[in-house]
Amino acid sequence: MRIDSSSTAAAILPLVGGPANVLSVAHCMTRLRLDLADPSRADEEALRAVPGVLGVVVADGAFQVVLGPGVVTRVTADFEKLTAAHRLAARGAGLKARRRERDATPLKSALRRLAAVFVPLVPALVGCGVLAGVNGLLLNAGLLPGLTPALTAVASGFMALIAVFVGHNTAKEFGGTPVLGGAVAAVVVYPGVAKVTAFGVTLAPGQGGVLGALAAALLATYVEKQCRGRVPETLDVLLTPALTVLVAGLGTLYGLMYAAGAVSAAVGTAANWLLTTAGAFAGLLLGGLFLPLVMLGLHQALIPVHTTLIEQQGYTVLLPVLAMAGAGQVGAAAAVYVRLRDHAALRTTIRSALPAGLLGVGEPLIYGVSLPLGRPFLTACAGGAAGGAFIGFFATLGDRVGATAIGPSGWALFPLLAGDRGPGATAAVYAGGLLTGYAVGFAATYVFGGVRAAAAALSPTTTATALDTAPPGKPGPLTPPDPATATATGTATATGTPPTH
To answer: Which pLDDT tens digit goes with each residue over 89-133?
Structure first.
């Protein structure tokens, strides 16, 4: 008889002390493994009497409920839903209402899930990118020839296997078994695919890149969910993983890799064409619109684009252009500081937030200065547009500027720069873009920002309270933005995603 997993999970939860007593949940092939805050609150005898429970074991500090193969997977999933629901409820009715409002938009929900796949990879991308930049300088200078091969291996290893990590995170986010998602995505980078022909074309290892890995893991998750409901429980532990890897793996080889490879190639071609052909105009649009994209939470869609470009070309040409938005923000804040000599609260906020803004962390300036004042946010976008146009113009001349990793911006991006004309020329173009963004952002805000009129509408008391109590990267009482926007922006800053400033 098939066990009702939801009923079993609901019956187990109160007998282990309730959701507040459960610190962590995991499972092996047959057992639900719980870490309990107070194991003495669990009723072992009552648990053994629950239909579907085969036994209770307390060992190695873990409280284990024996359920059997197949059953344990479904019960664990339902059990985690129950405990997660409790934690969410504990945060309060207000937070739940904002979360429902945020998730009501399909686009925001999709971008949030996409970010959940790629954001955890950013620290490794940054670390490996910095090492790749250092290694490139050593190679160009002919220094430490005995060390550079080792640095190349250390810096390149993660990028060679990034598809596996994307597959793992994708399956985890969309409700599949993470290791199965990683196993199917590993097909994308396996050298043996060079012996496979699809649609008359011989496949190449890595074809499709992170987009292929994302699609492969989504397919694996779908296949796994279909198997879980149809495979007999006694065979679930053997058949479901095998069928998931087989069906999704073949689908990846004979369909997804070919399609994702075409899409990835188109992304790289479009990015190069955009800057080398449209040049200044493309940079103007990208640099000017990036801050509004951040406010809407739409910037998350660019993460896989950056990653794809880094895989293909060794660097992303879009990141330095987008980083100009932060330069415009710094220039605008400096203009506000000069114009409002008698507004102590704003000047104090600017002094404390400006160093972070120079290093690419712009949320304190956005939420503490430009958004409360209104028009300076638009003049900051004008500065970003000017800086982007500067870099785009030089791209048409063959001086493309790229970044070997995503994460930092502002002056913090210098160690990650790469380009077509050597490190000196690349750094000079990027620095010129920053200075242009600063200058135009300052001038536009000083002349057209309406700073004094906007500041007069804010009482000094309210302004000081808002700016002093709002933590870095978060809006204060003056700027109650959409919760999804605040969450997306704050999360991205904390984890080091592409510049949100």
So the answer is: 555 445 445 555 555 567 777 777 887 888 788 788 778 877 877
Residue for token digits 């794809």? 308
Q: What is the rounded (10 degree) CA torsion for 365, 369, 373, 378? A: -20
Quick count: other Cβ atoms within 10 Å of Cβ 303? 23
Cβ atoms < 10 Å from Cβ of 180: 22
pLDDT band at 468 (very low <50, low <70, confident <90, very high): very low
Bridge partners (DSSP) of residue 59 are 62
Strands 62-66 and 31-36: antiparallel
Pick the more confident residue, 472 or 86: 86
Tokens of 176: 């599949």
Q: Is 482 exposed, middle or buried (0-12, 13-18, 19+ CB in 10 A)?
A: middle
- Positions marked catalytic: 28
d(CA 461, CA 459): 5
Alpha-carbon dihedral sign for residues 339, 358, 498, 424 = positive
- Encoded amino acid at 301, one letter: A
Give strand pairing partners of 36: 22
The identity of residue 46, as a single letter, is A
One-letter amino acid of 174: F
The torsion angles phi and psi of 142, rounded to 5 degrees, stand at 70, 25
Stretch (H or E) spanning 198: strand 197-198
What does the angle CA 102 – CA 107 – CA 113 come to, to the nearest 5 degrees?
A: 75
Rounded to an integer, what distance in angstroms lies between the CA atom of residue 197 and that of residue 219?
A: 20
Give the pair of three-digit tokens for residue 134. Answer: 């250092």
- Residue among 7, 55, 1, 6 nearest 32 (CA): 55
Cα–Cα distances in angstroms (integers) from residue 140 to residues 197, 424, 430, in the given order: 39, 12, 20
Largest CA distance in the chain: 78
- pTM equals 0.63
- Measured CA to CA, the distance from residue 410 to residue 426 in angstroms comes to 14
Cα 252 to its chain centre, rounded Å, is 24
d(C-alpha 350, C-alpha 75), whole Å: 53
Query: Which tens digit of pLDDT belongs to each residue from 198-243?
Result: 888 888 888 888 889 999 999 999 999 999 878 888 888 899 999 9
Taking only the tens place, the pLDDT of each residue in 435-444 is 999 999 999 9
Q: Which residue has the tokens 């050298």?
A: 191
Dist CA 172 CA 167 (whole Å):
9
Most confident residue range from 71-85, 185-199, 486-500: 185-199
Cβ distance 327 to 410 under 8 Å?
Answer: yes
Residue 14: both structure tokens together: 């109160």
